[in-house]
Amino acid sequence: MHRTILSVKNITKQYLATQSSGISDISFDITEGEIVAIIGESGSGKSTLLKAIYGLLSLDSGEVRFQDKRVLGPDEQLIPGHKGMKMVTQDFSLNIYAKVYDNIASMLSNTDIKSKHEKTVEMMEHLHIAHLSAKRITELSGGEQQRVAIAKALVSDTRMLLLDEPFSQVDALLKNQLRADLKRIATDTGVTVVLVSHDPADGLFLADKLLLMKDGRLLQQGAPRALYNDPEHLYTARLLGNANVLNAAEAATLGIDTSGKHLVFYPEWVLIGSGSSAFTIKDVYYKGFYEELLLEGQGGLQFRGIQLSVGSGHKKNDQVLVNIGRYVISN
Ligand code: ADP
Ligand code: MG
User: Fold this and answer.
1) Measured between alpha carbons, how far is 166 from 197 in angstroms, rounded to an integer?
2) Of 16, 22, 142, 234, which one has the fewest beta carbons inside 10 Å?
3) Which tens digit of pLDDT belongs to each residue from 137-170?
4) Degrees (nearest 5) of the Cα angle 212, 213, 219?
5) How far is it, in rounded angstroms, from Cα 116 to Cα 104?
6) What is the pTM of this model?
7) Residues 6 or more apart in contact with residue 297 via CB below 8 angstroms
8) H/E element holding 176?
9) pLDDT exceeds 80 at position 312
10) Which ligand 1 atom is nearest residue 22's CA?
11) In what helix (H) or strand (E) does residue 185 lie, and over which residues does it extend?
């Protein structure tokens, strides 16, 4: 069963009349149970889009439909949002003097005390915070507070969870865990997750679908693999990966005609030791299990390739043959 849970149609919200800000003419659908990541550079309109989905903004045009009902704006209803949709912002909005348990339980009604208790405990276990149950929010780390905020948002039969930059406050190790937890919770509970991130690595490996924002517009959308392997725009390739970008003249020196467009390829698409173009390894950057190679050809043309760190790797100043094994031509 693949049902559309959220439908965004041609929404526009400009904050300022004189200059372009906010978002323009955005349309997309989200299927129930999907994890969707809105990514893009700072100022590209990600938070604005999330707020628009949640009903925090009065839109200039277009509409947002959640479970087939139009989401009302702040001028249409007093309390924003929609039952079944919850947003966790960077300030977490927790009652900092109350205990973890009470913060979460406060979202549930008292009509069935037993069920209230069970749901609270279950949600704490889901987010690995059961051991913090009796602690006050002020006694928790930022990462722990975030888990409480997510548990609180999810506990009351939430069908869609909106998260603005959920990974920005946690260190790399916790980030990995939170990412895995979100994926597991989405799978276990069928909740739809929409998260915003400026770091594409967050979205790339977590999401079923990426929405790529630039200058208030939705530039490209699709599965992470599809966007990574077939970036329509330079921006996509640069944001998602460490792409090499050559202009048409540079591409021509490699014998590739781009019809005036750009040649885009990731370092791992460069084949070292085959082909006909001779390059010099100008530098080698150690990256753990692989090394990035800065390659320079005739006329000073430079781009990056990779080699695995184990085995007989090439060294700085080595001459190698290079072939661009795969590339895309982008605008
Ligand atoms: P992101 O979350 O991707 O960093 P935002 O959605 O916060 O981007 O902002 C998108 C654009 O709208 C930016 O140019 C920003 O300066 C502008 N903007 C955001 N909020 C307001 C506001 N309340 N008033 C005026 N301009 C705003
Ligand atoms: Mg933002």
Assistant:
1) 7
2) 16
3) 999 998 899 999 999 999 998 999 999 998 887 7
4) 70
5) 10
6) 0.90
7) 253, 254, 277, 278, 279, 280, 322
8) helix 172-189
9) no
10) 12
11) helix 172-189
Asked whether 301 and 255 are in contact (CB, 8 A), the reply is no
Say what the pLDDT of residue 311 is: 66
CA torsion sign for 140, 169, 38, 49 is positive
Distance (Å) from CA 164 to ligand 2 centroid: 7
Element (H, E) at 168: none
**Among candidate residues 192, 94, 107, 102, the one with its CA nearest the CA of residue 144:** 94
Substitution site in 14, 16, 48 for ligand 1 pocket (most atoms within 8 Å of beta carbon): 48
Cα 126 to Cα 35, 148, 237, 256, distances in angstroms: 17, 11, 35, 52
Query: Do 66 and 29 contact (CB within 8 A), yes or no?
Result: no
The closest alpha carbon to 27, from 219, 160, 203, 276, belongs to 219
Q: Name the one residue in this structure whose structure tokens are 């517009």.
A: 217
Determine the residue type at 162. Answer: L
Question: What is the distance in A from the centroid of ligand 1 to the CA of 46?
Answer: 8
pLDDT of residue 39: 94
Joined tokens for residue 256: 């590739």
Contact present, 39 and 55 (Cβ < 8 Å): no
| CA nearest to 120, candidates 146, 148, 101, 135 | 101
Cβ-defined contacts of 104-108 (< 8 Å, 24+):
104/148, 104/151, 104/152, 104/155, 105/155, 106/152, 107/152, 107/155, 107/156, 108/155, 108/156
Amino acid at 72: L
Tokens of 330: 């982008």
Cα–Cα distance, 114 to 33 (Å, whole number): 28
Place of tokens 């070292």: 272
Beta bridge partners of 196: 38, 164
